[in-house]
Design goal:
about 425 residues
Length: about 425
């Protein structure tokens, strides 16, 4: 199953990477480090809104869809609760963007010239929220073939829009195309997946009640720390590099982070569609370790080999994707090693999500994000922009050790059953 999903998603990811890298080259050539910095700030804002606009219930939708897909009454409770959470999250996000659009523009882009972009993001919030929830349904049903199709088509359409603005050398248009990408993804998703959604979501049965609120709050808390706080810290670190060194160096780190997110995207999709649903139904210690070993043996050699190739050809990659960004070269080794260690820890951390071990997850996320910020601030003063990726590596070493200890202790001191209660 895992190998099948890997082989199916690999072509999609490869095509995405080729297009993505081509677009990033054009941005780097036409707008330099400043352009990479600005689009990095906007992407972090989109990532933050993706979680906050739905109050972070994505992983909850994935988990409970996989468990309740044959139980109509529980599905009704699930989607009524989802409706309440997304409505509250959408209104709060949109109002916040509209009321403080100038302040947010100044903080993100060091200018109020992009106030219009923040206002546009406020309009996009409902579409961001819906797209996130429907993606959760797809992942929970493990509809990986349809997901691959949606991912490919929506990415091609949004990339075509970005390329149009790049051709016109209109950087504001490039940022607008990034902002409206969630709307494009939602339209494509509905085009591909409407029939299946109708089988599980009956809108006439929705009520503005949240019978599963307590369960979903657990996932909201986890998402807040794993996505909202992380995106905020990424934005702050860019601003930190901007203040302490220069905008060019902020763009250099943004380029490295951008490249990392692109090759790590495959693991995120794979883990969400496979690991969470799988771990959610595992009820014995033996099955957990067997499944964890299977995941490690399947993906770690593939990712390790791929990362080694990225390092060996880093000079070629810089010339190909980010021409003139030669200062990126020393960043590769720390970023790649840190990402590999992160990959090992991610498999274990998804156990916390699948079993709603809220405090375990929140503790490790606070630790990871907090260490990243502290180490980045400390190492920047010593090593410059390279200090950020050194901080990235060190924090994931600590993170892996702590996550392994907590998972191992929990499994060995608790009876794992199919009816876990919320971690208290």
């Amino acid at each position: 199953m895992l190998l099948k999903m890997t082989s199916l998603n690999a072509p999609v990811i490869i095509v995405r990477q080729v297009i993505s890298l081509f677009i990033r080259r054009l941005i780097a050539e036409n707008f330099g480090e400043s352009g990479i910095f600005l689009q990095g700030q906007l992407r972090s804002l989109v990532q933050l809104l993706t979680s906050f606009s739905s109050l972070g219930i994505f992983n909850g939708v994935v988990k409970y869809i996989s468990e309740y897909k044959e139980e109509e009454e529980k599905l009704r409770h699930l989607f009524s609760t989802t409706f309440v959470f997304t409505t509250v999250g959408t209104i709060a996000s949109a109002m916040g963007l509209l009321f403080w659009c100038e302040t947010i523009s100044q903080y993100l882009f060091n200018s109020t010239s992009y106030t219009f972009l923040i206002q546009l993001m406020a309009v996009m919030v409902p579409f961001i929220s819906l797209q996130r929830v429907f993606n959760g349904v797809i992942n929970g049903l493990s509809q990986y073939k349809k997901f691959a199709k949606i991912d490919m088509v929506s990415y091609l359409v949004s990339s075509a829009l970005t390329l149009y603005f790049l051709y016109e050398k209109n950087f504001d248009g490039v940022l607008i195309s990034i902002a409206v990408t969630p709307l494009i993804q939602l339209v494509v998703l509905l085009w591909v997946f409407t029939k299946t959604l109708k089988e599980y979501i009956t809108y006439k049965n929705f009520v503005f009640k949240a019978p599963m609120a307590k369960l979903f709050l657990a996932f909201s808390l986890m998402s807040f720390f794993s996505t909202v706080v992380l995106s905020s810290v990424e934005i702050e670190i860019r601003n930190l590099v901007l203040r302490k060194i220069s905008e060019n160096d902020a763009g250099i780190w943004s380029a490295m982070l951008d490249l990392s997110k692109n090759y790590m995207a495959f693991s995120t999709i794979l883990f969400t569609m496979y690991v969470i649903p799988k771990f959610a139904v595992i009820n014995t210690k033996q099955l957990f370790f067997k499944e964890m070993g299977h995941v490690y043996k399947t993906i770690l050699p593939l990712f390790g080999f791929g990362m080694l190739l990225v390092y060996l050809f880093k000079g070629f990659i810089i010339d190909l994707i980010f021409p003139g960004f030669d200062e990126m070269s020393p960043l590769f080794k720390w970023q790649l090693i840190g990402d590999f260690v992160r990959l090992i820890g991610m498999v274990l951390s998804y156990y916390f999500i699948s079993k709603k071990l809220v405090y375990h997850f929140i503790f490790t996320e606070i630790l990871s994000i907090g260490l990243f910020y502290v180490f980045a601030r400390y190492f920047i003063d010593i090593y410059g922009v390279e200090g950020v990726v050194i901080g990235h590596f060190v924090r994931y070493i600590v993170y892996l050790l702590v996550v392994f200890f907590l998972v191992y202790r929990y499994i060995n001191t608790n009876n794992i059953s199919s009816n876990e209660t919320l971690d208290e």
